[in-house]
C-alpha cells in the first residue's frame, strides 16, 4: 500500500510482527474458547476478525454499541456484554441474529434484560475490585430470580482488575487464586458452565476461569508491559515534528486528544516527554539541532484502550510499509 | 424536545443558563473581533454559530479538520489555524471560499503554506511556554521571508499558556505583561496589525493582544474555574448508576473514555470519586443505600477540551429539559 511517511498525523500505527507475536503468545496459553477477546481494548472489528480466524469466536464487550458493531460485522456466535447496562433494548433487537448474553448484578439490571428480550445472563460477582458485581451471598438468589423470569443462567463472571498490575508473579498467582476461589464457590451455587474472568495481567495465572476476558494483549499497554508476560507494545502514536526550539525541545503534533494520559505520559525512545497539551507533545533532548521540522516520532501510550478510542483508524505496519487500514469502528456507547 | 431522563449515557450535557452567562461575560470584556473564539475547546459548529450571532465572527482552530469543518458550516470570514502544520494542502484547497491564515514559526512551515497556496500568515513567537513559536530575534527574518515569498504577514501570535493558571490575579497580570511586552516589541518589527494571544485564563488581563484566543470559557473547565474570573462550569457528563454496592460505593457508566483525566478526576457533588476506569466511575459516599440502579449523576470534568473531543453530541439543557442537540462535528485531525 502506502509508506508510513504518507500518513496524516497523529496516526495510530501497529507493528505487524509484534501484534502477531502477541496473538501467538495468547493462542499458546488460551486456545479457542479459552480466550474470550475483549473488544473494548481495540474497538475494531478487523482485529476481531483476526482473532476469529485464530479460533477465538466468542467475544465480550463493555458497551451496547460495541455489541451492535460486532453483530453488524457478522460476529454473532456468542457475544457477552461483560458490563451492567439499562440500555438493553438495543441488544434485545439483535437476539434473532446473534447469541447475546449480558452480565447482571442486581434485580434492576436483570429486569431490564427481561424487558429487552435478552434470555441469557451471567451473574456478575464482586471479587475484590470496587466496581460492579453483587456479593457472593446475593449471587445464587439472583440466579434463582433469573431462572424464575425464564432466563438461562450460563454461569458467573468476576473481574479481578485490582490484581492485574501486581508485579511479583508469585504474589499475583496467590492473590488471584484467593479472589477466584470466591468465584468458583459461587459458581457451584449459581449453576451454568461458564466462569468468565481475568484479563491481560492474569491471562496465564487465572486457572479457575473457564474463559479469560483479555483484549489489551493484542496491542499492549506500555504499563502492562512492565509485567513478566510475553506481550510487547505493538501500538504507537505516529506524530510529526512541527517545531524545533534551539533551547532544547521539539514539538510533535500529538497530545492529550490523541494519547490517553490516565496512566501518565507516553514513552518516547528519543528522549523525555516534558508535557503533553491538547494537540502537542513537547519532547526534550540533548541536541534538538539533530531534528528538523517534518521528522516523524513515535510515542508509546501508557494505556491503549482509551487511546484507541480517540482515533478513527489503526494502520498496520510491516516495517515502514502500511499494509492494512483497520477502522476503529466500535467507538462510542 | 425530550427529557434528560431519555438521554443514553454517558452524555455530555450543557446547562443553558450557565453557558449563556459565560458568553455574556466574555462579550462584555471582548466585544466583536476582540474575541477570536478557539473552536478546539468545544469542537462544535453549533456553538460557533452562537458566538457568530453575538458578533464574534473570526475563529481560530488547532487542527486542519477543525478549519475544514468551519468552512463547511459557512464560517468563512476569517479563520486562523493557530498552530503549525505541514498538512496544509487541505486548507489551500479552501482559500477560494474562505479567508484562511496560518501560524508559522519556521522556514519549513512557511514553505508548506506557500506550497499549499495559503497567502496569509501570522508569525508565531515563543513567549515563554515551551511549545511552538520562533525566538523573538527570528520573527522579523521570518516575516521578511514570508513577504519575499509573496505572502501577507498579518501580524504576530504568541500563547502565554504557562501563565493561564496563576491563581493570584496581581501576579498573573504582572507575568502576562512581561510576556506580552516581548510580543508587542516583536510586533513592531514584524509589521501587520494583529497581535493574537491569550486564553480563558488571561482574557481580561492580556491588554496587549488585539484579539484573545479563548474557547474554554464557553463550557468552562472546573480546573480553570478555580480562578477569579466570571466563568462557571456549564458542561457535565451525565451518567447512569448501574450498580450499588452496600459496602459503600456506587458505579456510574462514565469513565476514562468519556471524561478527560489529564487534569485529574472529575468532580461529583454527591461524594468522592474513588477512581475512574475505562467505562466506569466508582463513587464513594456515606450512604449508598440512598441510591438505586437507574439513578442519574452528573460529573464535572476537570478539563473540557479533551472531554468534548471524546463525544459525538452535546445536549443543551434548560433545567432538565433537552432543548437542543449540538453535534460535536469538529473531531479528529
Describe what you observe in this structure.
- Chain A is an alpha/beta fold.
- Chain A has 2 domains: 2-11 and 232-327, Lyase, Ornithine Decarboxylase, Chain A, domain 1 (Beta Barrel), CATH 2.40.37; 16-218, TIM Barrel (Alpha-Beta Barrel).
- Helix content of chain A is 25%, strand content 24%.
- Chain A is built from 8 helices and 16 strands.
- In chain A, strands 1, 2, 10, 11, 12, 13, 14, 15 and 16 form a 9-stranded mixed sheet that branches. Chain A has a 7-stranded parallel sheet with strand order 3-4-5-6-7-8-9, with helices on one face.
- The first copy, chain A, starts with a strand and ends in a 6-residue tail after the last strand.
- Chains A and B meet through strand 10 and strand 12 of A and strand 10 and strand 12 of B.
Examine the secondary-structure arrangement and name the CATH architecture of the largest domain in chain A.
Answer: Alpha-Beta Barrel
Which assembly state applies to the chains in this document? Answer: homodimer
Our measurement of the CA-to-CA distance between the termini of chain A, rounded to an integer number of angstroms, reads: 32 Å
CATH superfamily of the largest domain in chain A: Alanine racemase
> Which structural class do you get from the secondary structure elements of chain A?
alpha/beta
The description of the largest β-sheet of chain A is: 9 strands, mixed
Q: Mean pLDDT of chain A, rounded to whole units?
A: 96
Name the biggest interface.
A-B, 57 and 57 residues
Number of domains of chain A: 2
Cα-atom Rg of chain A, whole angstroms? 21 Å
What proportion of the residues of chain A form beta strands (DSSP E)? 15-25%
Shape of chain A: elongated
Amino acid at each position: 500500500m502506502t509508506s508510513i511517511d504518507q500518513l496524516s498525523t497523529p496516526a495510530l500505527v501497529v507493528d505487524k510482527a509484534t501484534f502477531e507475536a502477541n496473538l501467538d503468545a495468547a493462542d499458546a496459553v488460551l486456545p479457542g474458547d479459552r480466550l474470550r477477546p475483549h473488544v473494548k481494548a481495540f474497538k475494531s472489528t478487523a482485529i476481531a476478525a483476526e482473532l476469529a480466524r485464530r479460533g477465538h469466536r466468542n467475544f465480550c464487550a463493555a458497551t451496547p454499541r460495541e455489541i451492535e458493531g460486532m453483530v453488524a460485522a457478522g460476529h454473532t456466535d456468542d457475544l457477552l456484554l461483560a458490563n451492567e447496562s439499562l440500555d438493553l433494548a438495543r441488544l434485545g433487537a439483535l437476539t434473532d441474529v446473534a447469541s447475546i448474553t449480558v452480565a447482571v448484578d442486581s434485580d434492576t439490571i436483570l429486569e431490564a434484560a427481561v424487558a429487552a428480550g435478552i434470555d441469557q445472563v451471567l451473574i456478575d460477582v464482586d471479587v475484590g475490585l470496587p466496581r460492579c458485581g453483587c456479593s457472593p451471598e446475593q449471587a445464587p438468589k439472583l440466579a434463582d430470580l433469573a431462572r424464575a423470569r425464564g432466563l438461562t443462567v450460563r454461569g458467573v463472571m468476576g473481574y479481578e482488575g485490582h490484581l492485574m498490575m501486581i508485579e511479583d508473579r508469585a504474589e499475583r498467582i496467590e492473590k488471584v487464586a484467593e479472589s477466584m476461589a470466591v468465584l468458583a464457590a459461587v459458581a457451584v451455587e449459581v449453576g451454568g458452565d461458564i466462569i468468565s474472568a481475568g484479563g491481560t495481567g492474569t491471562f496465564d495465572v487465572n486457572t479457575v476461569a473457564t474463559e479469560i476476558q483479555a483484549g489489551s494483549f493484542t496491542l499492549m499497554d506500555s504499563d502492562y508491559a512492565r509485567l513478566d508476560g510475553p506481550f510487547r507494545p505493538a501500538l504507537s502514536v505516529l506524530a510529526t515534528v512541527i517545531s524545533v526550539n534551539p533551547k532544547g525541545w521539539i514539538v510533535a503534533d500529538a497530545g492529550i486528544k490523541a494519547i490517553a494520559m490516565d496512566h501518565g505520559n507516553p514513552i518516547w525512545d528519543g528522549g523525555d516527554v516534558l508535557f503533553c497539551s491538547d494537540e502537542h507533545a513537547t519532547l526534550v533532548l540533548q541536541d534538538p539541532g539533530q531534528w528538523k521540522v517534518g521528522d516523524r516520532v513515535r510515542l508509546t501510550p501508557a494505556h491503549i484502550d482509551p487511546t484507541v478510542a480517540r482515533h478513527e483508524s489503526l494502520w498496520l505496519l510491516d516495517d515502514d510499509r502500511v499494509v492494512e487500514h483497520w477502522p476503529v469502528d466500535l467507538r462510542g456507547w
